[in-house]
Recover the amino acids of this structure.
């Protein structure tokens, strides 16, 4: 057994929650961001501003026409797998083989492709690392093992994993439509918490295909965390902290949350309020890419995702036009209410002595 563990250490195969649920999951979200999300944004820009280069067909593959954004989106499987391989510190031959693994897992996983890619890519990458440089014909053995295992697992487990993810996502979205108030609170709070924790809320939303009203609640929760922490910690972190948390990530506060969990109360309570306002009053939906539901104001991807959903709905005739009420809801839910509510709740917590000056000071 000792030799086995020595082998794992030599191959940098670390079987841990951090490596798989944090590093790999976070990297997967970045891969999805750089393919599907960027592709969606490019398509929306082309449609909205009538940019012919972005709306015209630039390639026809197997009878399917692709725009610039369409090509980027089509590469989401390989992009996710490459990102996971990078996070798992794969050697070059394993890393490059992940392109085929990601494509097959995403294609066979259907709507739940991202979750299938996560499982399949991790297993294929670790087995590829295990055989890497163990033979004199490494250039043949390593890609054969990595791709062979990846495609076999894609055929074997990607469909049921994808189906399970799609079922769970549909269940959440159905429940939100049925009970928009309660589910608005639940989805907003849980996805918002996931965004601040060192895991990827974006990858979770993408894996579950969380869109529609539930996606809108998720956007509300994520924005409440980011804007909330940005404004209530302004006295400690000034403009730099406002920007790094407001359009960067609220995850920067994780170390301070460990020291004093009560600093998390204002953003969480704010998300519990903005979530049902989004679902019940403004009926804010995320009809763009599901990954946008878990991004919040990081690069303003959450609001942009809602906007691209509006554009798509208008172009498909589902929605007549983007109204002033739509814009009012988006601005209130994503920016104004999280800031105001978090400041009010923070003031109450400070009066109670739960939060003190310096509790949210960021290092550096």
């Amino acid at each position: 057994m000792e030799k086995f563990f020595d082998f794992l250490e030599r191959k940098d195969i670390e079987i841990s929650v951090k490596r798989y649920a944090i590093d790999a999951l976070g990297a997967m979200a970045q891969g999805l961001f750089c393919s599907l999300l960027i592709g969606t944004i490019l398509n929306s820009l082309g449609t909205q501003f009538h940019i012919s280069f972005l709306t015209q067909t630039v390639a026809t593959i197997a009878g399917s026409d692709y725009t610039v954004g369409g090509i980027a989106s089509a590469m989401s499987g390989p992009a996710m797998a490459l990102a996971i391989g990078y996070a798992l510190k794969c050697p070059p031959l394993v890393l490059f083989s992940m392109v085929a693994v990601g494509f097959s897992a995403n294609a066979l996983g259907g709507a739940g492709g991202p979750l299938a890619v996560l499982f399949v890519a991790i297993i294929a990458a670790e087995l590829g690392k295990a055989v890497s440089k163990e033979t004199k014909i490494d250039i043949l053995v390593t890609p054969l093992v990595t791709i062979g295992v990846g495609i076999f697992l894609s055929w074997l487990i990607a469909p049921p994993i994808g189906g399970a993810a799609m079922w769970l996502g549909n269940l959440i979205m159905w429940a939100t439509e049925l009970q928009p108030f309660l589910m608005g609170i639940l989805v907003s709070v849980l996805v918002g918490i996931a965004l601040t924790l060192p895991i990827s809320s974006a990858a979770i939303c993408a894996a579950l295909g969380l869109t529609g009203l539930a996606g809108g609640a998720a956007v509300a929760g994520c924005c409440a965390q980011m804007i909330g922490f940005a404004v209530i910690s302004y006295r400690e972190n000034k403009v730099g902290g406002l920007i790094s948390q407001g359009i960067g990530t609220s995850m920067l506060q994780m170390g301070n949350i460990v020291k004093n969990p009560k600093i998390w109360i204002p953003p969480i309570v704010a998300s519990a309020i903005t979530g049902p306002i989004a679902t019940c009053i403004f009926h804010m939906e995320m009809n763009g890419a599901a990954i946008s539901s878990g991004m919040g104001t990081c690069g303003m991807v959450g609001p942009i995702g809602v906007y691209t959903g509006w554009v798509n709905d208008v172009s498909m005739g589902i929605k007549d036009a983007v109204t002033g009420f739509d814009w009012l809801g988006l601005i209130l839910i994503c920016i104004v209410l999280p800031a105001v509510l978090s400041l009010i709740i923070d003031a109450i917590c400070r009066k109670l002595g739960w939060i003190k000056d310096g509790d949210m000071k960021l290092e550096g």
Notes: The chain has two domains: 2-159, 179-351.
